[in-house]
Amino acid sequence: MRIPPNMALWKTVGNGTLEGISRVADLDASKLTITLSKTLKPIPHHETMMFGNIMSDHMLVAEFDPEIGWSSPEIKPRGPLSIDPASSCVQYGTTVFEGMKAYIGPDGEPRLFRPDMNMARLARSAERMALPPFNTDQVLALIKQLIIVDRRWIPLFSGYSLYVRPTITGTQIGFSVGASDHATLCIMLSPGGPYFRSNAKPTSVLAVSETVRAWPGGTGGHKVALNYSAGFLPLRAAQKQGYDQVLWLLGDDMKVTEAGAMNVFVVVARDDGDIDLLTPPLDGTILPGVTRDSVLALAKAHTAGETTLPGLEIQNSQRVRLHAQERSFTMAEMVQWSTEGKILEAFGAGTAVVIASIGKIGWKGEDLDLPVHEGGLGPIAKALRTRILDIQEGREIWKNWSILVTDL
Ligand SMILES: *Cc1c(COP(=O)(O)O)cnc(C)c1O
């Protein structure tokens, strides 16, 4: 057998036993073939774009076979995949995914926000589901190629972007309970608008402890499909009670973990006049969000004087000092801070929403009302959201966070 030049080590695992190690082809963006759709869809009016309800014309597909490795990737018209109903993904939910966005900058060029973080997370998620490995630089190169092919789908309005959904799913056929040694990589694009419309209200969340999103040693720190489907029933129950999202708690002490599929932040007034910006630590039950990391980094840079967040300029000859901390907090602490009037703001952070303020927390049959701010967002959430959007949309440069899609 000819050994391909670009190789990965792949451990073939069947029924839980290591059968051997073979050298197979790694994912290779230089082998990409492109088959364009004969009919391009009309692009709907941007105001009809909800989150993920519209798809672009094309998708990228590559398949992994344990004997051959990764197939030559293909960009082709978007459509169904042919998947055997006995496949691992159908039977055992071996699916992982990513969520990132492409934005048009003032120069008219599409860019991605910190995609290296999404790629590293995709590799970790795939590993956690025992799916085949792949070269993440090649996945990123393929994402860029797909965006270039479908670049007319990137909306040209601020707050709008093209959502990128790389998905890897286990396609081994059979009911044997074990790792899937076949997989399909599929990348799709979906144009979307801002979470905040003019009449947007802050998000309301129902704190839930009877069901949990994640647990120590589980999969909560990875973007695996199973984490989401298990939350749909509690989400529907919360929505029936009039709340937008579930605030996921964990443990006997009711630690606050995440809000829906967003990382959660609370802004608390300190006795010394400074401000604490708290979010739970990455202990394996928290999804390591790119937005979360960006919020923490920008808040720290602001307090260190490396940048000044918009609206948080010097006040009373002092800059607003934010103490960004990864530390857990409980519902009991939230109630106490709220009673003492110390909660200034609470918000969720994630790629889809960027920053969404939380206005109300349902808990033990009552509502914990959080401060209401004009326009929905409090000053800290607004400063962070504005700065992150400015970087994403290429109006501000910060580190290497925004990269050009055309830099292949
Ligand atoms: C994706 C996700 C987030 C946000 O991560 P980003 O990288 O900021 O988009 C937060 N929590 C959960 C559970 C998620 O799935």
From TrEMBL:
<dbReference type="InterPro" id="IPR033939">
    <property type="entry name" value="BCAT_family"/>
</dbReference>
<dbReference type="InterPro" id="IPR005786">
    <property type="entry name" value="B_amino_transII"/>
</dbReference>
<dbReference type="GO" id="GO:0004084">
    <property type="term" value="F:branched-chain-amino-acid transaminase activity"/>
</dbReference>
<feature type="modified residue" description="N6-(pyridoxal phosphate)lysine">
    <location>
        <position position="223"/>
    </location>
</feature>
<dbReference type="Pfam" id="PF01063">
    <property type="entry name" value="Aminotran_4"/>
</dbReference>
<keyword id="KW-0663">Pyridoxal phosphate</keyword>
<dbReference type="InterPro" id="IPR043131">
    <property type="entry name" value="BCAT-like_N"/>
</dbReference>
<keyword id="KW-0028">Amino-acid biosynthesis</keyword>
<dbReference type="InterPro" id="IPR018300">
    <property type="entry name" value="Aminotrans_IV_CS"/>
</dbReference>
<protein>
    <recommendedName>
        <fullName>Branched-chain-amino-acid aminotransferase</fullName>
        <ecNumber>2.6.1.42</ecNumber>
    </recommendedName>
</protein>
<dbReference type="GO" id="GO:0005739">
    <property type="term" value="C:mitochondrion"/>
</dbReference>
<keyword id="KW-0032">Aminotransferase</keyword>
<dbReference type="InterPro" id="IPR001544">
    <property type="entry name" value="Aminotrans_IV"/>
</dbReference>
<keyword id="KW-0100">Branched-chain amino acid biosynthesis</keyword>
<dbReference type="GO" id="GO:0009098">
    <property type="term" value="P:L-leucine biosynthetic process"/>
</dbReference>
<dbReference type="InterPro" id="IPR036038">
    <property type="entry name" value="Aminotransferase-like"/>
</dbReference>
<comment type="similarity">
    <text>Belongs to the class-IV pyridoxal-phosphate-dependent aminotransferase family.</text>
</comment>
<keyword id="KW-0808">Transferase</keyword>
<dbReference type="InterPro" id="IPR043132">
    <property type="entry name" value="BCAT-like_C"/>
</dbReference>
<dbReference type="GO" id="GO:0009099">
    <property type="term" value="P:L-valine biosynthetic process"/>
</dbReference>
